[in-house]
Write a structure and sequence with these properties.
The chain is mainly alpha-helical and 50 residues long. It has a domain of 25 residues. α2 crosses α3. The N and C termini lie far apart (32 Å).
Length: 50
């Protein structure tokens, strides 16, 4: 795979992570959902990662 193709692939994956896939939340929506839960910020971050 050449560099140009790799950059296009990574850009596409990044955009999908930020905007969300059909039927899935965007990264921002997911983070907001976890922030509404109870607990410390550290606990919320841990919960999101797991």
């Amino acid at each position: 795979m050449d560099e140009k193709t790799m950059v296009k692939l990574l850009n596409s994956a990044y955009d999908k992570a930020l905007q969300g896939l059909p039927g899935a939340e965007s990264a921002e929506e997911l983070a907001k959902e976890y922030l509404r839960e109870s607990g410390t910020l550290s606990e919320k971050a841990d919960s999101l990662i797991r």
